[in-house]
């Protein structure tokens, strides 16, 4: 992946974010599916710029935890405890008021939109004016080494290029924290390593508390952050 310019990255931080980045905090957090606890009394502090990892087998509740943090959890589940950004409690808020960014296994680009239109979709409405929005898009593409891609059809992009566009769209939404739901799992080994480094560099440059869900030990070891195993949590 091309080198990053941290000063440029800072130009599209949240305008209304706290002056100093704040941690993502889970306090005595429990998640239950109907009558079964997936885990209980989880306490976790993810510092700004830290990438914490949650590991475990399929079906153990990893992705459900991310859904709980983002506010998109199915009504089949129930939760207790608190999800906070610093001292601010997100728990009662709907997803659109939490400003949590998410990356999935699929890039989820809109096929009927150009690359630039996909990126524009992520920019908050508070950024007014076509010129200002275009400047953010062009800056983001420049940072990612894709300077002339604004008018490209997503169908013409390689897998790695599509993945980078998905990251940029998430960052342009100016999130306060970042959740990664196995976004590297469908990539081949060489591309996986480059894309993983790209995502982690950007998360750290933006000082985003980041939680990665994975079953791959290489993903976990590359974060240099806290690693939690769901098996340990549940025992």
From TrEMBL:
GO molecular function: ATP binding
Keywords noted in UniProt: ATP-binding, Nucleotide-binding, Transport
Pfam families noted in UniProt: ABC_tran
Domain ABC transporter: 24-233
SUPFAM superfamilies: P-loop containing nucleoside triphosphate hydrolases
Classification via InterPro entries: AAA+_ATPase (IPR003593), ABC_SmlMolc_Importer (IPR050093), ABC_transporter-like_ATP-bd (IPR003439), ABC_transporter-like_CS (IPR017871), P-loop_NTPase (IPR027417)
Gene3D superfamilies: P-loop containing nucleotide triphosphate hydrolases
SMART domains: AAA
Name of the protein in its database record: ATP-binding cassette domain-containing protein
């Amino acid at each position: 992946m091309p080198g990053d310019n941290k000063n440029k990255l800072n130009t599209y931080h949240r305008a209304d974010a706290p002056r100093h980045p704040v941690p993502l905090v889970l306090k005595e957090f429990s998640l239950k599916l109907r009558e079964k606890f997936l885990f209980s009394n989880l306490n976790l502090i993810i510092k700004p710029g830290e990438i914490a990892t949650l590991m475990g087998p399929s079906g153990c509740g990893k992705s459900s935890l991310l859904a709980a943090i983002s506010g998109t959890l199915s009504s089949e589940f129930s939760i207790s405890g608190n999800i906070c950004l610093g001292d601010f409690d997100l728990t009662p808020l709907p997803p659109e008021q939490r400003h949590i960014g998410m990356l999935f296994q699929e890039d989820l680009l809109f096929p009927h939109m150009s690359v630039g239109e996909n990126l524009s979709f992520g920019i908050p409405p508070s950024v007014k004016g076509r010129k200002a929005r275009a400047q953010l898009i062009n800056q983001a593409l420049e940072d990612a080494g894709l300077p002339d891609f604004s008018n490209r059809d997503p169908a013409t992009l390689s897998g790695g290029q599509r993945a980078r566009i998905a990251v940029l769209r998430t960052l342009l939404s100016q999130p306060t924290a970042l959740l990664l739901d196995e976004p590297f799992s469908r990539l081949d080994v060489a591309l996986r390593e480059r894309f993983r480094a790209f995502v982690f560099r950007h998360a750290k440059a933006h000082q985003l508390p980041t939680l990665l869900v994975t079953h791959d030990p290489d993903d976990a070891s590359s974060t240099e952050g806290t690693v939690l195993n769901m098996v340990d949590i549940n025992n």
